[in-house]
């Protein structure tokens, strides 16, 4: 048919079987069925975060702690939201009896 670099049907089935085996063992992607009966897979969030931190090209760009810069640059700039922004502009929040904050 003239199509190049296309995996054979058998190769696709082998990968699918490996995915099924991972799912059955409790690791790897989780299988879901959409509202229109389409099947898709999602990696668990913990696995995604673990891979991102392990990737040397991505890890330097992850900022888990707030930075002290002028203005709100990212959601990780929590100090700005908590202490410097006007209460009229801040997102709604409640302090729970345990001392935790809920948004």
Structural summary, described in words:
With 103 residues, this protein is α+β, with helices and mostly antiparallel strands. The chain is 33% helix and 12% strand. The chain has 3 helices and 4 strands. The protein has helices at residues 9-25, 45-54, 78-84, and strands at 30-33, 39-42, 94-95, 101-102. The radius of gyration is 22 Å and the shape is elongated.
For the sheet with most strands, the description reads: 2 strands, antiparallel
Helix/strand/pairing class, anyone? alpha+beta
How do the strands of the widest beta sheet line up side by side? 1-2
Low-pLDDT stretches are none
List the defining traits of the structure above.
4 strands; 103 residues; 3 helices; alpha+beta; elongated; two-stranded antiparallel ribbon
Topology:
Layout: H1 9-25, E1 30-33, E2 39-42, H2 45-54, H3 78-84, E3 94-95, E4 101-102
Antiparallel strand pairs: 1-2, 3-4
């Amino acid at each position: 048919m003239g199509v190049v670099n296309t995996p054979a049907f058998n190769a696709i089935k082998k990968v699918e079987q490996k995915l099924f085996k991972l799912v059955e063992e409790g690791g790897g992607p989780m299988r879901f069925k959409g509202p229109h009966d389409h099947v898709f897979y999602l990696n668990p969030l913990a696995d995604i975060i673990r891979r991102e931190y392990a990737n040397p090209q991505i890890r330097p760009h992850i900022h888990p702690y707030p930075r002290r810069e002028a203005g709100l640059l990212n959601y990780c700039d929590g100090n700005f939201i908590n202490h410097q922004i006007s209460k009229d502009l801040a997102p709604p929040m409640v302090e729970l009896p345990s001392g935790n904050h809920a948004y």
